[in-house]
Every structure is written in C-alpha cells, then in structure tokens.
C-alpha cells in the first residue's frame, strides 16, 4: 500500500514538473514573440528614418542642382545643349548664329521645283513661286525658351531631358494660299477633259445658255496637302501626280439668270445741275416658266427667246455730252497677216464695242463676247493649252481682254475677277494681262465711278485699241500699271525622237522661253506726284519648254 502511495506521489510530482515546464516554455515563447515584435518595430522605425533621410537628401540634391542649373543658365544667353531644330543641331548657339545656320540651309530651297503631272500634261512651280516660308524665327524662339520658362523645376527637367535624350523642334512651313490657288486654277483651265461650268450670253434677241460639261477638276484639299508634304521633305525636285476628280457642272438656275439679265427699259436723259448723263437701257425679259421647260431637254446649248423693248430716246439723240471725256485708252499690237487670229480679235472687239455700264454695274467678258464657236464665226488660232502652244478655237481673244484690263485700271475702275496667263504673252508685259477661258475663267470689272461709262474697241492696221469714255470727276488721277520682276524661272528642253527626220538631225519644234514671277502695282498720281501705290496682283508665269525633235530615221 505504501509502495502504491509512493508511486502515486511520484507520478503527481512528475506531472507537476511537466506542467511547470510547459508553463515555462509558453512564457519563453511569449517573451520571444514580444522580443521579435519589438525588434520588428525597431526595424520599421529605422527604415522609415532611412526613407525620410533619403527624401531629404534628394530634395537637397534637387535644390543644389536647381541652384547650379539656375546659376549656369543665368549668365547664358545661348540655346542650351541638346536642342535641335528640324534635326539640325543648334546647341550652344546664339539666336543669331542659329538663324544664320538655318537660313543657309533653307534659303537655298527657293529654286527647288515641284512638277505637277497628269498623263501628258505637266506644269511646275518653284518654292519661291509658291512663296514657301520656313518659320525659322519662331522655331529659334521656341528653342531659346527651353529652360527659361521661369518655373525652376520645369526648367531643370527640360534641361536634363535635353542633355540626356535631346530635344527636337519641328520647323513649321507656310505656303502662300493665293499662289497655290493660282496653280490649281491654271491646271483647271488647261487640263484636257476639264470641267466646264454652265454659262450664258446674249446673241441679238436670243439668250444662249450652255449646259456645261462633266469633266476633271483638281481635288484642292489633296493637292494642297501634297504641296505641304513636298516642301517639308529634303529632295530638291519633287513630282506630284495631280489629284483629279470627275465633277458634274452646276445646275442651271433660270431664276438667277433672269435676275442678272432682266432690265427695265429706260430712255436716255441728263440733268444740268449737277450735269449727269443717264444713258438709255433696253428692256430685256424672258418667260421664266418657258425657259425652265426648255432646259429639261438634255442639250449642250439652249436658245431662250428674249423680249426686247427699245427705248424711245438714246444718248445719241440727247447730244454728244453723254460721254464727252476720254478716261483711258490702251493699245496692243498684233500680226495682221495672221488672218484667223485677226478675225477672232475683231469678233471679240465688236462684241464689247459700245457697251455702256451704269454706276455700280459689273461687266463680264465671257457673257459679253459669248462662247467661242464656229457658228459665231471664230477661227482656229494659236493658244496656250497643256503647257504648249497649240491651235484652238477663238485663239487670240485674250489679247482683247488684256487690252481692256489695262484700260480699266487706267480709268480707275475696280477689277473683280482676273487671272494671268500660264505663260508670258507677246502683246503685253507680264503682270498686265487677263486670261479668259469659256466655262471656267472670266474677266470682270465694276463701274465704280459716279457716272456711266462707254467702252469702244477697234482692231485695225495691226493695232487693237480699247477706250473708255465718260465724264471726268472733280479730281481725276493719272494711273499706270508698273510691274516688278521678282524672279526668273529657267526653261527646260525636251528631246523627242522623230523617225521622220534623218538620224542625228535636230529640229526645234517649240522655242523655249523663261518664266517669271512678277508683282503688278497700280500707281496713282495727282499733278505728277505719286498719291498711292497699290498691289494689284502677284503673278507667276511658267517657263515655256523648248521642244526639239531628234531624227531616228534612215
């Protein structure tokens, strides 16, 4: 029994020791955890201190660098290191040095030439002709401002970026809109199969309306984009295939035509105080509904009967006072032996001869002369087409429109529509001509004087003359057109193989002539002194290609 008790006591003691041991182990683990947690917190605090110290050091470094960069830039007026304009390095250059560097490169591009082609048609224009202008000063200003905005952090960032990676500034380019439009219009006037718009003219007691013709015209937005693309590239010569679209002519508006044609009959009369002449006006009218019915037929030309009411009294019947003063006169020479061309000149001159314009009234050359047709008596004669001199119906009538143009300017009238020829003409200097093309290019002007005017036109003895008569105003100016040649466009030579000529023999089929760019000015004088000089136009004339046939025959 005692032994059993002893055994039980020993077991109890042993159990107590185990429990005590486990309690000690648990306490030890808890202490270890507490120590570990304390160590972890200490580590976190240490890391946070390191981060804060690092941030402070970075900020201090940035401040130091900013101060250094600011100090460096403070006394530096040159473009900073790492800056390029259009990939041209302008680092550390002054603004003047950068300008000189860029101008040496880009001013050489003036004579770069763009060729516009479509099948057999070709025309060209130099960068100078198009007034291509590289925005050099703007780019240099942008380059110089890098690192100088006034924001210290931004400036230093931009400086570091330029130093490390480099910074390139695009060079913007501008092209004169009027010059591009001139190129486009010349193409539209010259391209084979071109679009022809509806028009009309009077022929005695009939109104002739032409319906126009579907054809090609330049896709303006695309060709302008192509021009900009070319001038930004480095190649000296570029070719643009003319983007053309097939376009339908505008619809004929009978109401619009009636509004322009309709006139009330008016007898000529004059007043003495103040002395003013009011010339006669024929009454012109037509049946609108009948005209609308006639144009429903698909025809190239329509004849609309006009109702003409003659005035009872004309200016001739009220005396010669109607147009007593010669306001302007201009003459050009022609070759009388060229009978076909002379016929065309006389027909055009006769059409405009005697035309009276009231104050505010506009004159249209195409509507006055009418379509150039065989039925109207026009002949085939030399004219410009597709970059060459060819025979065309009505060739030569632009000499009359050009002669009229000069007289109009000298009479101090306002020109509303006018464009120069594709090539320099033989009868007037460059800048003093006015081309016309049926269905696409007109010449128009308005009587902006206080009194009516009367146009007379004669073609005889090798001289075409246009005179403008009216009443002189209180102050009359002497007006001339003065032209200034801006640049010359050298002609090129095209060699064409010709089996009809013996091998090696050459024949000049078309003589070449230089083109040019000119500016025309209206010079107004009073009592011999210049009162004003006004720009009339900027005109570009293409070079006339020399064509030589080279024999390949036996």
Structure at a glance:
The chain has 554 residues and is of the alpha+beta class. Helix content is 33%, strand content 32%. 27% of the residues are buried.
Which labels suit this protein?
554 residues; alpha+beta; 3-stranded mixed sheet; 32 strands; elongated
Number of helices: 11
Report how far apart the termini are.
154 Å
Assembly category: single chain
Helix content: 25-40%
Alpha carbon gyration radius: 43 Å
Class from helix and strand fractions: alpha+beta
Largest sheet: 4 strands, antiparallel
Counting DSSP E segments of at least 2 residues, the number of strands comes to 32
- Global geometry: elongated
In the predicted model, the low-confidence regions spanning at least 5 consecutive residues are none
What's the pLDDT, averaged over the residues?
84
Strand content: 25-35%
Strand order of the main beta sheet, please?
A: 18-26-25-19
């Amino acid at each position: 029994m005692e032994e059993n008790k002893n055994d039980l006591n020993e077991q109890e003691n042993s159990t107590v020791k185990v429990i005590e041991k486990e309690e000690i182990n648990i306490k030890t683990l808890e202490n270890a955890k507490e120590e570990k947690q304390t160590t972890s917190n200490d580590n976190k605090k240490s890391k946070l201190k390191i981060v804060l110290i690092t941030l402070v050091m970075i900020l201090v470094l940035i401040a130091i660098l900013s101060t250094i960069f600011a100090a460096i830039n403070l006394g530096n007026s040159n473009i900073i290191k790492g800056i390029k304009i259009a990939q041209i390095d302008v680092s550390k250059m002054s603004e003047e040095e950068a300008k000189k560097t860029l101008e040496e490169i880009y001013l050489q591009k003036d004579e770069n030439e763009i060729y516009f082609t479509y099948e057999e048609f070709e025309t060209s224009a130099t960068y100078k002709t198009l007034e291509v202008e590289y925005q050099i000063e703007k780019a240099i200003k942008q380059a110089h401002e890098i690192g100088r905005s006034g924001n210290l952090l931004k400036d230093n960032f931009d400086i570091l970026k330029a130093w490390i990676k480099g910074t390139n500034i695009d060079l913007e380019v501008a092209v004169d809109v009027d010059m591009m439009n001139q190129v486009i219009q010349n193409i539209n006037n010259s391209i084979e199969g071109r679009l022809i718009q509806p028009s009309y003219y009077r022929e005695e007691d009939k109104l002739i309306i032409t319906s126009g013709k579907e054809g090609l015209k330049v896709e303006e937005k695309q060709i302008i984009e192509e021009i900009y693309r070319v001038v930004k590239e480095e190649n000296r010569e570029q070719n643009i295939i003319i983007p053309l679209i097939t376009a339908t002519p505008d619809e004929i508006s009978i109401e619009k035509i009636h509004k322009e044609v309709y006139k009330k009959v008016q007898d000529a009369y004059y007043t003495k105080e103040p002395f003013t002449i009011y010339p006669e006006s024929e009454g012109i009218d037509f049946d609108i509904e009948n005209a609308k019915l006639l144009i429903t037929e698909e025809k190239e030309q329509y004849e609309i009967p006009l109702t003409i009411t003659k005035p009872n009294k004309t200016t001739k019947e009220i005396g010669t006072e109607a147009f007593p003063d010669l306001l302007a006169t201009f003459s050009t020479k022609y070759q009388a032996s060229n009978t076909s061309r002379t016929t065309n000149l006389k027909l055009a001159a006769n059409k405009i001869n005697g035309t009276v314009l009231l104050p505010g009234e506009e004159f249209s050359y195409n509507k006055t002369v009418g379509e150039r047709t065989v039925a109207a008596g026009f002949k085939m004669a030399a004219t410009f087409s597709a970059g060459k001199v060819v025979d065309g119906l009505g060739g030569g009538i632009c000499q009359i429109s050009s002669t009229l143009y000069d007289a109009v300017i000298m009479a101090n009238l306002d020109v509303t529509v006018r464009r120069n020829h594709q090539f320099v003409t033989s009868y007037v200097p460059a800048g003093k001509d006015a081309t016309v093309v049926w269905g696409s290019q007109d010449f128009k002007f308005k009587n902006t004087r206080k009194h009516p005017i009367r146009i007379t036109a004669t073609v005889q003895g090798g001289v075409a003359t246009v005179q403008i008569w009216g009443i002189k105003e209180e102050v009359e100016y002497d007006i001339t057109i003065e032209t200034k040649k801006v640049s010359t466009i050298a002609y090129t030579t095209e060699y064409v193989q010709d089996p009809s000529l013996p091998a090696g023999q050459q024949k000049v089929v078309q003589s070449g002539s230089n083109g040019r760019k000119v500016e025309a000015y209206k010079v107004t004088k009073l009592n011999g002194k210049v009162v004003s000089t006004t720009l009339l136009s900027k005109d570009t004339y293409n070079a006339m290609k020399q064509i030589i046939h080279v024999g390949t025959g036996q």
